[in-house]
Design brief:
The protein has 3 helices and no strands. It is mostly helical. The protein has a domain of about 55 residues.
Length: about 110
């Protein structure tokens, strides 16, 4: 540090000394960010759309779940509908696969 409390090294001045960016520096920064995003998209272009879609679907599901916590639960009790079951059920007719098939062996069964 010098007498005024500013860093003396070049890299320390670049990192810690506050100053206004010039228009060229600002545009260079935007270009670097744009190129980085483009390269990221080119590498992960099959993964990113599915990730965004899954994140959106997850947010919708969370919102629906929260709404479901506060909806319903009124005073009505749900009664199941019971249908009478007949005492004697008709027996199913045997299918061809259930009938006895002739044995390939000469010995009787």
């Amino acid at each position: 540090m010098d007498d005024e409390g500013r860093p003396t090294k070049f890299w320390a001045r670049m990192l810690f000394q506050p100053r206004q960016l010039t228009q060229t520096e600002w545009r260079l920064g935007l270009a670097v960010v744009g190129i980085t995003l483009l390269l990221t998209w080119l590498i992960y272009w099959t993964f990113i759309p599915r990730l965004i879609a899954d994140a959106m679907l997850g947010m919708i599901n969370v919102i629906a779940w929260i709404i479901g916590l506060f909806s319903g639960g009124g005073g009505q009790e749900v009664v199941p509908v019971l249908t009478p079951v007949p005492d004697v059920l008709p027996s199913p007719s045997p299918s061809p696969s259930m009938l006895p098939s002739p044995s390939p062996s000469p010995l009787p069964r």
